[in-house]
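Ticket #4471: structure export looks truncated?
Reporter: QA, pipeline team
Priority: medium

Steps to reproduce: submit the single chain below to the structure queue and open the exported record.
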Amino acid sequence: MNIREQQERWECEHLSPYASKSIDSMGRDREEEDCDLRTAYQRDRDKILHSKSFRRLKHKTQVFLSPEGDHYRTRLTHTLEVAQIARTVARALRMNEDLTEAIALGHDLGHTPFGHAGESALNHICAEGFSHCEQSVRVVELLEKKGAGLNLTKEVRDGILNHRTVGNPSTLEGQIVRIADKIAYINHDIDDAIRGQILKETDIPREYSQILGDTVKVRLDRMVHDVVQNSLEQPKISMSREVEAGMMGLRQFMFKNVYTNYRAKSEEGKAKKMITELYAYYMDNPDVLPEEYQYLMRVRGQSEERTVCDYIAGMTDGYSIAVFKNIFVPRSWKL
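Actual output as written to the record:
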């Protein structure tokens, strides 16, 4: 019996009856030889960690566009915080921690430059629509490795696709990531908003702070403990009604006071305009797209609209600005 097989046996003997066992995975679209060290979900986690899309998250906006300071979250640090929270919950509930971590690390791979501003711009201009959840799945199924994708298990892809509020993950590990995502961004966005002097802790309505706490640390602890306490030995992952209502109320408060705040979002109009101009340019000039995207159109029969979205969505904030300047901003003439 090799190490992977020992790990698979351990999962069957020690994980919750409601946990997803690696040995019971529905598998991949293309068969791969089993690893003698790692389970299927461990391999998926490692594939995501070593992907180019994961590395690019370092240079993509979370909430604040190009903030001055080293301590504001990026899409990468958000992803790592989601993974940490999700792993804590999964371990406490005896769920499959490797599956949970793989879903968490991959859940935002399809995010555009400039966060939800870029997503909104592409969704508005592209006739086929655009959603970062669906794009994250496209990244792991198709766009990574020049059209080959990462060939992840169905459970990981399901969790990535269904991490949004209206999603319905088929595994409890996916449900954990879905809740952990909200817990993470609500609290770290409050922290960043306070750092950016958009909010003060005292601005948070008492009706929410009385339930959840009056510091980021206390709120995180309260939410995580509540998820664990309400989900122990249960066939679903949930919060108590009181804490869930407080969290969703706090989320609405953030939408009103931070996510649409004119100071925090003062540059979003420019970002949307830039994304829109780039989209129009590449739709008019699809022949200048990189070869791997030409392949998607010529060989895979993908539409120009979707291919242009794929290319722009994969850009980082800085790269999209550089490309825009190269296309639209005149350069000094010299011999």
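Status: closed, not a bug. The export was complete when the record was re-opened. Leaving a note from the reviewer for reference: The CA atoms of residues 236 and 242 lie 17 Å apart.
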